Sequence to fold (448 residues):
Amino acid sequence: MTTVGIDAIEIRTGKLKLDLPNTFAPEKGDDPEKYTKGLGLQDSSFPDVYEDIVTMGANAAKQLMDRKGLSPSEIGRIDVATESAFDHSKPVSTYIAGCLEQVYDGDFRHANKGERKFACVAGTQAIDDAYNWIRAGRNRGRAALVICTDTALYARGDPGEATQGAGAVAMLIDEDPDLVALSDDQGYGSMDETDFLKPNQQFPSVDGKRSMQVYLARMREALEDYESVAGKIELDDFQYAPFHTPFPGMVRKAALLAYRHVIRDTEREEELAEEIGRQPREDEYEDREAYEEAIREHMDELKDTEQYQTWYAKTVEPTLELSSKVGNWYTGSVHVARVSALRDAVEKDLDFAGETLLVGSYGSGAQAEIHTETVQDGWREEVEALDIDEQLAARYDLTWSEYEDVHDVHEYDEDVGHEMIEQFTTPSEEFVFTGWGRMNERQYDYVE
Ligand code: COA
Fold:
């Protein structure tokens, strides 16, 4: 059977940045290390006044199509994953296709367009849809464009304000991919939860601490479900573990839990037992409370072992590099983590084709998904083609009062139009938001 997977990726960050330790922390009266060490964040990306989910998504998609030399006739499907949509009916993918049709010969009338929603896991679901469409032989030789695009803004003063971000990831899903092939096997952990939601409101209602517990619980279920079809996962089975990264500190917690799970009943557990004892087993304790207390103590010790720290530094920490510089991109976040991992492999000059990634996606509400990906021969060229370092270096560094203005511009309830404050950067060769049309639709132009 032919392989199906991600052929190419392009990333587009919002063009502004908020420096968390130096600009955000002093205003909040917080120790900067709460952000750098606690949450693991340095900066958040924000959209300039002429940017939004459509411009970022369309700009990422154009960059991808240009680099791969694609024309609209070669794309049979455009799915957008977002939790920042501004329309309950017309999907963002139609706006993005409309933008792209301004600059390419031909059109996307033949392409099936949609919008996927399940909080941050929707991008992975859209990849699934594309995978299934291709595997079913319904693609007529065409590839699918999956675009994850979000402005992850929280209400001012919400604890989540520190974890904001904005950006888009465009991915081409195709047969014989250049970057990674997707495994047939998948695992799910899915349950009706109210940890993070936006019931007809722009900014989320979040129970932050609970959302972290739910992330860990659903991810564990997904791991077990994956193992029920693919067999037990061993530590040496995968080189990197890119996980959904709302903020790096979250993945730090998930990694410890995953490590504990994966080494249980293995030689590695026996080796560690000499230092910190075996992992507590529930049937050895009188009640659940005593067991959980023992687990907490064991995890604290496990975290400090050399074995764990070496594994974490090699397998997980490199996946957090971009996230620490851009914040949460919701649907794009796990895909940014994958790119971070692949960039690390380039930097270390690894001979990486054929190696495996263990990919963990999560969306509040809540659902986790685990699958593996096999790195393909063309991976290095794809990763080296990314210009994300240049984009990050070019971001405008907001002062606090500029941040307040930008937040107001992007907040629907504030009467601050995008034309009311000066843009911070100058658009060039990109799609920009220009205002509203007669039916309150958003409008876009391409700036040369
Ligand atoms: N030095 C080092 N670490 C520090 C610190 C300092 N001076 N001050 C605080 N920290 C640590 C805390 O111990 C905590 O780490 P821990 O969880 O490992 O103990 C971390 O920094 C965050 O501090 P906390 O006080 O818990 O932050 P908060 O209550 O302001 O909010 C979230 C944290 C994550 C709950 C909040 O940002 C949020 O709601 N985010 C959105 C929801 C989300 O993304 N959920 C994830 C699931 S998708």
